[in-house]
Specification:
With 101 residues, the protein is mainly α. 77% of the residues lie in helices and 0% in strands. The longest helix is centred in the middle third of the chain and has 31 residues. It is rod-shaped. The chain starts with 5 loop residues before the first helix and ends with a helix. The model has no long low-confidence stretch (mean pLDDT 94).
Length: 101
């Protein structure tokens, strides 16, 4: 059970143009997940453009030491950890979103 002040409840309903608080919260959460996924997809595209491959390919090539650069260099490790974070979050938010539909 969630308790909200009447002021916040009214604000949620007016902002989302929905008939009740539960629908308003669902709409906000769904739209939040959409925004997060779009932001992460944009970040992933930047890495894909930089390395001319997907994260899966990049990860596999790093494991095989076939990335074309020293896999222990700051650039490669920084990109790997950043890209892996993005990939993990995209999967997480994607799973959450699929639970709403």
């Amino acid at each position: 059970m969630l308790t909200l002040s009447p002021k916040i409840g009214e604000f949620l309903i007016r902002t989302t143009e929905t008939p009740d608080i539960e629908m308003a919260l669902k709409k906000i959460l769904f739209e939040y997940l959409d925004l997060k996924l779009k932001e992460l997809q944009g970040q992933a595209r930047e890495f894909e453009k930089k390395w001319s491959m997907s994260f899966e390919e990049f990860s596999a090539k790093c494991k095989q030491n076939k990335i074309g650069k020293d896999i222990h260099s700051y650039e490669v490790e920084k990109d790997f950890w950043g890209w892996e974070r993005i990939d993990t979050l995209m999967k997480h938010y994607g799973e959450l979103k699929s639970q709403w539909t």
